[in-house]
Each structure stands twice: as structure tokens, then as C-alpha cells.
């Protein structure tokens, strides 16, 4: 899943472009950052659309002050619930199906065993260890951005939260700094430059949050005015390209979405010249600042570019917007943060345990025995075991996904939603 698709070796359908994006964590993170930038700025953008007045200026400053005040606790308080859950899981030994630092796990070939909290002698010692790890994470890493030489172990999937906090503050600062600018200057000049320069120079997180800010500006304008070409032009009434060439504009929107899905499918390991036709060419086009990013090659650049094209096209595609406004999508949106916080621990405990148990039940483990002879099992048995491996993997995936959504709902009600109420309550106590 981390390797590029190749018609000779890694030719599974889940590695194909566009299909890969369904399980590509990097692209999902990029989309999440764009959505965050959009959500954090849309209220302020609508305030900026109003007439210049003392009331609107006061409302903007009040909203920004409130957002800055609550942002840190809004992010780290739900993380405390995730740390607590991981600590309980570790104390119960639920991660030991695949112990950490087991480097030659052939059954997990091509995968990655993430760090997790080490199992302590007692529940009390486990709680003390997790509390100390949470303090380092919430204070040293998130608040002061000091992650050099330290890697928290309780839930390594939370690596995006420090970025989320830092880039959120950048969004609020940019809103304040650009509040006196004319709309055309923000939409046509400053924000596009922030996106392009940030993405090119390796600050992909900053670029994606700024893109969310830019899309919020465009969306707020489209809500009131279908004149796409007159964004921010004083009294502009020019006929839009959509009115003059609706078929051409529709083609461009669908093309942008398709290209975005393809770019978002860029593999984690950069393909070699003889691999993955198309992606290997993209590798040669990658800006130098992205080539050696955290040993992941150019994935962040192309995942960011693909996510940007996907999000930008959706702004102009009411059909997809209607789908995303359905009850199921809205529910998943509400629990999305909780889903992010719990999916890793559940995968490493329930997911791995069920997978090993079901594979052992049907004998799939024979496929990963390094000492088996070429004729044991036979070719026919190998094919049969491969089929069973696929069936049992999808079976475990269905169970793990169902349980993850259920636990996310509980986590949302127990930790996420109350943390929002608590931060608002705490803010009011100081006003």
C-alpha cells in the first residue's frame, strides 16, 4: 500500500491511482488541513464581506480573539481522552498481538508498526507514564513546537495536531493582517501567492491552510453572486465564463477533480524511473524542497496539490456539495476528529489481533513462513490460501471499521463535544 503501483510486482488493485486515495493517509491529512483553513476563516470572511463599519470591525476582532483563546484547549483536550484510551489498552496488553520493535514481521510486509505506549507493571504506573507523555506532547510539542529529539509514544497518529495548532494561528494572523485589504487583493494576489510559494518551498501545511482561507473567500462570494470572474471587482457585472461557455466550464471542473484524484494518489515511496508510469515523471518535476521530506519523497507536495485541486473543484460542483451535505456525511463530519483520535489505537489492537486470529484459523500463516520449502504448500494450496487471505482481510476490515465508527461516536459524546462546551464556558469566565 505504501509502494507505487507497478504492473509487474505491486499490481494489486488497491494500489491503482484514484483507488489508492481511499486509503492514502497523507492525502486525507492534506484535505483535512484545507477543510480546517476553510472552517476557521469562513465566519470572518463573511464578516469582511459586509460594509466597513465600527460594528463589523469589532465583531471581527471579537471573533478572532475568541478563536485564538480557545484553539489550544480545543485541540489538546480531546487528545487527553485518546492518551487515556491508549494507556488502558496498553495496560491490558491489547497491543501485544504485534509487539513494537519486531522488525522482521513478514506478515506485515510493506507496512509499518507505529510506536505505542510500553506496557507497565501496574495500572498505576501505566497512568503515570501516560500522564508524563501527555504533558510532553501537549506542552513541549504542541504549545512550544519542540519535537526535536523527542517522539511521543502513546499515540503517534497525532503528529498533525502540532501542525494544526500552529497553522491555525497563522490563519487568524492572516485574517487580521488582510482585513483592511480589498477583496480582489486577497483573492487574486495575496492568498494565491501564499499557496503557491508555500507549497513550492516545502511549507505544505501553511499552503493548504491558506488555500482553505482562499476557498472560503470564493465560497462566500459565490453564495451571493454567480459572477465568478468579478470576484472583488468594484461593481463588476461582467458576464462570467460559466454563462458564456457552460460546457467548457463544466469540463474544466470535472477535469480538475479527476487530475486532483490522480495527483492525490501519489505513493509514499517515490517511484523509480521504470516504475509507475506517470508518477515517475511527476517525481522529476518535484521542487527540490520536497524531494527528501522526512524520507517520504515528494508525497507531501503531490498530495497537497491533488487535495487542493479536489477541494477547489468541489467549490464549483453543487452535485458533490449536495452529496457531502447528506445526513451520513454530516454525521461523519461531526465525529471526524474523534475518528482521527481513535482509529490508530483500534487498528493496532483490535485490527491486528483479529487479523492474526482469522489468518491463523484458515492457515494463511503458512504463506509467511520463511522456512517453508517451495513445494510446501503446493501451488494450488497457495492460491487457495491467497484467496482466504483476501476474504479474511476484508472481513476484519469490515468489523474493525464498524467498531471504530461506534467507538468514535462514544468518544465524540464523552470527550470531543464536552471539550467544546468547556472551552466556551472557560472563556466566558474570563470575559
Please tell me about this protein's structure:
Helix content is 65%, strand content 0%. The protein is mainly alpha-helical. The protein has helices spanning 25-49, 54-91, 123-143, 160-178, 183-200, 204-224, 241-244, 246-263, 279-285, 299-315, 318-324, 327-334, 336-362, 379-429.
The structural class is mainly alpha
* Strands, count: 0
Q: What is the helical fraction, as a range of percent?
A: 55-70%
| N-to-C CA distance | 50 Å
The coarse overall form would be globular
Number of domains: 2
Biggest sheet descriptor:
none
Radius of gyration: 24 Å
Q: Can you give the mean pLDDT?
A: 83
Strand residue content: under 5%
Give the low-confidence spans: 227-238
- In DSSP terms, counting alpha (H) and pi (I) runs of 4 or more, how many helices? 14
Concise account of the structure shown:
By secondary structure, this protein is an all-alpha fold. It contains 14 helices and no strands. The chain folds into 2 domains: 302 residues, no CATH class; 88 residues.
Entry keywords:
431 residues; mainly alpha; 2 domains; 14 helices; globular
Compile the SSE list and pairings.
Layout: H1 25-49, H2 54-91, H3 123-143, H4 160-178, H5 183-200, H6 204-224, H7 241-244, H8 246-263, H9 279-285, H10 299-315, H11 318-324, H12 327-334, H13 336-362, H14 379-429
GO molecular function, one term: acyltransferase activity, transferring groups other than amino-acyl groups
InterPro entries: Acyl_transf_3_dom, Acyltransferase_3
Keywords: Membrane, Transmembrane, Transmembrane helix
Amino acid at each position: 500500500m505504501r509502494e507505487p503501483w507497478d504492473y509487474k510486482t505491486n499490481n494489486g488493485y488497491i494500489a491503482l491511482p484514484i483507488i489508492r486515495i481511499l486509503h492514502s493517509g497523507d492525502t486525507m491529512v492534506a484535505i483535512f488541513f484545507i477543510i480546517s483553513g476553510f472552517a476557521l476563516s469562513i465566519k470572518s470572511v463573511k464578516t469582511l464581506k459586509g460594509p466597513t463599519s465600527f460594528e463589523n470591525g469589532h465583531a471581527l476582532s471579537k471573533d478572532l480573539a475568541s478563536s485564538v483563546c480557545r484553539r489550544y484547549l480545543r485541540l489538546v483536550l480531546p487528545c487527553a481522552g485518546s492518551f487515556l484510551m491508549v494507556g488502558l489498552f496498553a495496560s491490558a496488553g491489547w497491543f501485544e498481538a504485534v509487539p513494537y520493535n519486531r522488525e522482521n514481521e513478514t506478515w506485515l510486509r510493506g507496512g509499518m508498526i507505529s510506536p505505542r505506549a510500553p506496557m507497565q507493571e501496574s495500572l498505576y504506573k501505566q497512568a503515570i507514564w501516560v500522564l508524563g507523555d501527555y504533558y510532553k506532547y501537549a506542552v513541549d510539542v504542541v504549545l512550544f513546537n519542540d519535537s526535536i529529539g523527542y517522539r511521543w509514544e502513546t499515540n503517534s497518529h497525532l503528529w498533525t495536531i502540532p501542525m494544526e495548532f500552529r497553522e491555525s494561528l497563522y490563519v487568524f494572523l492572516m485574517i487580521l493582517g488582510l482585513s483592511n485589504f480589498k477583496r480582489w487583493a486577497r483573492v487574486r494576489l495575496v492568498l494565491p501567492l501564499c499557496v503557491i510559494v508555500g507549497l513550492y518551498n516545502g511549507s505544505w501545511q501553511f499552503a493548504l491552510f491558506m488555500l482553505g482561507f482562499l476557498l472560503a473567500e470564493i465560497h462566500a462570494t459565490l453564495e451571493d453572486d454567480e459572477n465568478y470572474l468579478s470576484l472583488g471587482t468594484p461593481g463588476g457585472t461582467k458576464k462570467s465564463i460559466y454563462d458564456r461557455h457552460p460546457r467548457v466550464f463544466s469540463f474544466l471542473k470535472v477535469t480538475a477533480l479527476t487530475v486532483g484524484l490522480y495527483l492525490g494518489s501519489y505513493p509514499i515511496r517515490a517511484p523509480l524511473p521504470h516504475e509507475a508510469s506517470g508518477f515517475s515523471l511527476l517525481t522529476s518535476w518535484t521542487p527540490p524542497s520536497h524531494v527528501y521530506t522526512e524520507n517520504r519523497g515528494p508525497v507531501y507536495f503531490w498530495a497537497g496539490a491533488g487535495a487542493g485541486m479536489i477541494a477547489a473543484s468541489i467549490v464549483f460542483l453543487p452535485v458533490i456539495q449536495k452529496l457531502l451535505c447528506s445526513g451520513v456525511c454530516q454525521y461523519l463530519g461531526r465525529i471526524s476528529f474523534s475518528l482521527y483520535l481513535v482509529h490508530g489505537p483500534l487498528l493496532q489492537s483490535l485490527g491486528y489481533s483479529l487479523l492474526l486470529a482469522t489468518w491463523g484459523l484458515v492457515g494463511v500463516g503458512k504463506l509467511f513462513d520463511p522456512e517453508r520449502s517451495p513445494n510446501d504448500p503446493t501451488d494450488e494450496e497457495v492460491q487457495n490460501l491467497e484467496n482466504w487471505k483476501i476474504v479474511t482481510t476484508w472481513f476484519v476490515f469490515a468489523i474493525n471499521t464498524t467498531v471504530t465508527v461506534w467507538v468514535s461516536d462514544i468518544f465524540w459524546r464523552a470527550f470531543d463535544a464536552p471539550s467544546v462546551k468547556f472551552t466556551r464556558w472557560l472563556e466566558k469566565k474570563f470575559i
